[in-house]
Every structure is written in structure tokens, then in C-alpha cells.
Amino acid sequence: MNLKHIMAAALLAAGASGAALAASGDEVVANAFQPYAKGFPAFPGLTPGTVVNASNADKFKDAMDPGLYLMVKDGWTELKVTETFDFPNAKGYVEATRKDWQGVKLGAKNGEITGYVSGRPFPEEPSSSDPRAGEKLAWNFKYGINWGDNAAIYPFYWRYRNAETAKIERTLKFNFHFLNFKHRNDFAPIPEVLPNPSNLFRGIYVKVLDPQDVKNTQLLIQRYEDDLKLDDAYLYLGFQRRVRRLATGQTTDSFLGADLMIEDFEGYNGRISDMKWTYLGTKNVLMPYYKHTDVKLTDEYKDPSGYKFVEFGGKGNCMPQINWQLRKAHMLQAEPVNPNHPISKRVIYLDAQVFGASRSLIYDRKGELWKSFTIGKAHPDYHLPINKGTGIALDDSFSMIDLQAKHCTTGQFKGQVDAKLNPPSLFQVQNLRGGD
Q: Which 3 state secondary structure label does DSSP give 180?
């Protein structure tokens, strides 16, 4: 074979190799966003219509996380099981993952990442042999599409409840707003909001509407693109009419007397570098994923639009009356780096398809189970018209139960994927001063 033929053969082989790599990369992304392409998970005896309760909890123990099992076994709640179905991901986010993921690497330190542009940074299946698999899952969660590029919970009702007596101690009405400044994929402006002189990644803005004693209390969280840089958090107290900057430790205090701290928002609202991350494995478990139109609703709040919120029931009326389905979940353990942190760890069950932190177990400093956190996810196509087709699995209800104190805080959402509700000006400190 002459030199010309040898070079031609080499080029052909290189082209074939490149095509194989491209196909392999596309397959990784397809598997990440379509984990049920080859069939939905199954568990013996667990069929659509099954009600899991105290009488059969042991039979289905391995289909529940340990905290959920304890609550069902102890009569806190019953779980109505429905068929598993796909939850979409936003089209731009999936395409961005396909295009950019192979250039992403972890940095030398926890909290460092290189080559990230947009999409899911690490779509490969996690491996227990990878010592940094947990860290990669944490980055997938941080750069996930919880609420997408911008959305609002508008309004959002919190209730503080005595789980022993079912007494409602307090009801708060909020508006919550979310905006990604960078790595935007589906809503203009793409890829980022400019100007952004502080190089922010994400903003969260909260305003209390009722009751009167805390009305106009506002919270602003500014998360930087650099994960090693501390978040900025500001609180405006309406009765004091002044803005104060929150110290780092205050994000782990009870927020307005609730069973949640700011760090609990969305399942975990903190930096990658604040935690030691450990991948504990992947399994099929019951997760709170449903169609809003198919669950028990209440019109108690008389929303002007006619929208009805998720009803609550069970012990103390602490649990949303929603449907549960068997889904693939990655188990991720987060242990605080700060030894003075009020918890010893949280174990987050990340949905493998949409990376929502839909179930979390929070342990006190003695290592005992303290709180059980459920965030119900609603399919966007069976919700408000504005959410249809967005590919955003909607936070639709929540329950944070303090199992030790027998107390809970519950949440009922009206989530809207609407950029008009989230102008960038909302996420600036100056807005707090004019928030009345």
C-alpha cells in the first residue's frame, strides 16, 4: 500500500472513530433525559391504584426512602400510586447539554468547574467507583432547570401546623421569584442577562403579602457564578423599613418561624463548596410526581383566576394529597463543611430525569433523623396554560415535617413560568428599599 492509500485509510478510520464518539455522546444525553426509553420501572405488587399505608408498608419498604417508609408505617400519610410517566425537560436545555457537556471538567477544589457553558454539566450515569460522583450530581442540581430560566410562585401559601392537633398556627402568603442571569437556554435573553457587573448566576426574590405583622418583608438572595464566593443575602423588614445584610449563619436559622431554613429552599439552596458530597447509589423509589389536574384540590383561597391549590391531609394535615409514582432517583448525601452547622447531613433523592430534589431527609447533629421534606412536582402540560410546553417540572406543593417536634410547615404553589413576572430589577438591592 502506498503512502497515499495509507493516509486515506487513516483519515477514514479517524472519521469513523469521531462518528462513534459523537454517537456515544448523543447516547449519553438521550439516556440522561429519557431514562425510561426502554421501559418504566416496576416493583412486585406495586401497580397503579395501589394505596401504600401502614397495613402494607413493610411489603413496599424497598420502594420508599427510609424517611417516607417511617412516616407511612407510623400513619403520617398514605401514598396513592399511579403509573410512571415521562416528565419533559426544556428543549433548549437538552440541546445545550448535547452540544456542550463533553468539555466540562471538575476543578481541583470542591466548588470549582471548568469548561461549563450551559445545559446539564455531567449527564453520564454516576458511578460508585468515581470518588467525585457526588460532586458531579451536585453540579447537575445547581445547573438544573428548577423553574428554568425564570419563573414565579405567584402566590405561594405557607402554613405552620401542629401535627398532633392539626391546628393551623399561622398562614403566610408570599410571592417567590427566580431568575437565572447566566446559562439561559429557553427564554430571552439567551445566553445571559446583561448588564451583570457582579457576575451573578441566579437570583431569588421573596415578598410577604400577608399577614399584616410581616407584610412587605422581603428576602433577596444573589448567588455568584463563582461557587467559592459567598452568596449575598438581604432582608427587608417592613416594620423597620430598612435593609440588612444577612450573616452567613442566618441562612440556617428558621425562616420567619417556619420549619424551613433558607438553605432548605428548593431542596438545597446553597453552594457546592459548602458541603461534602457523596453518591450513595441509584434506585427506583416512590416520588411525588403527578398531574395537578388529577389530584385532590382545594378552592379555599378563592384565587381570582379560578386556580385551585393542592389539598393537604394525613396526620396533622401535614402531607399533600397527591399521587406518587415509581421513579429512578440518585441518592446524594450532603455533609456540611462547617462543623457549627445545625445539621449533620441531608440525603437528597434527585429525580434522574429532571434532577428535582423531590425527597430529602435531614439529620440533626447527633445523626438522628430530624426532618422529612417533600416537594411535589407537577407536569407542566396539566397545569396553567402558560406552563404548557415549557418542559419545566413544576414545584407544586411542599411539606417539611419536623418528626421530633411533631410540627410541620406546608406549602401550596401557583407556579408560573412567565418571564414578565421576573424583571431583572426585582433582583437588585435597590428594589428592596422601594418594595413597599
A: strand
Cell numbers that stand for 304 in this block:
381570582
Instruction: Report pLDDT for 192.
Output: 98
Could you tell me the end-to-end alpha-carbon distance of the chain, in angstroms, rounded to an integer? 82
CA distances from 315 to 36, 55, 164 (A): 34, 16, 7
Q: Give residue 353's identity as a one-letter amino acid code.
A: Q
Residues 209/174, Cβ–Cβ less than 8 Å: yes
Binned at pLDDT 50, 70 and 90, residue 24 comes out as confident
Q: Would you put residue 185 in left (φ > 0), alpha (ψ -120 to 50) or beta?
A: alpha
Give the DSSP H/E element, type plus range, for residue 200.
strand 200-210
C-beta separation of 296 from 308 below 8 A? no
Among 18-22, 85-89, 232-236, 368-372, which is the least confidently predicted range? 18-22
Domain residue limits, the chain: 142-433
CB burial of residue 339 (10 Å; 0-12, 13-18, 19+) = exposed
Q: In terms of C-beta density within 10 A (0-12 exposed, 13-18 middle, 19 or more buried), how is residue 73 classed?
A: middle
Please give the pLDDT value at position 152: 98
Q: What is the pLDDT of residues 173-195, one digit of tens each?
A: 999 999 999 999 999 999 999 99
The Cα 337–Cα 141 span in angstroms is 19
pLDDT tens readout for residues 223-240: 999 999 999 999 998 777
Q: Answer yes or no: are the C-beta atoms of 262 and 269 closer than 8 Å.
A: yes
**What is the pTM for the complete model shown?**
0.93
Q: What are the DSSP calls for 310-375, one per residue? A: EPEESGGG-EE--EEEEEEEEEEEEEESSTT-SEEEEEEEEETTT--EEEEEEEETTS-EEEEEEE
* 343 neighbors 249 (Cβ within 8 angstroms): no
Nearest residue to 122 (alpha-carbon basis) of 369, 299, 326, 330: 330
Residue keyed to cell 388529577? 294
Please, which pLDDT band fits residue 436 given cuts at 50, 70 and 90? low
* Fold type of domain 142-433: outer membrane lipoprotein receptor (LolB), chain A (2.50.20)
Half-sphere exposure of 42 (CA within 13 A, CB side): 5
Contacts of 4 (CB under 8 A, 6+ apart): none
Is the distance from CB of 288 to CB of 377 less than 8 angstroms?
yes
Gyration radius of the chain's alpha carbons? 22
Burial classification of residue 20, based on how many CB atoms lie within 10 Å of its CB (0-12 exposed, 13-18 middle, 19 or more buried): exposed
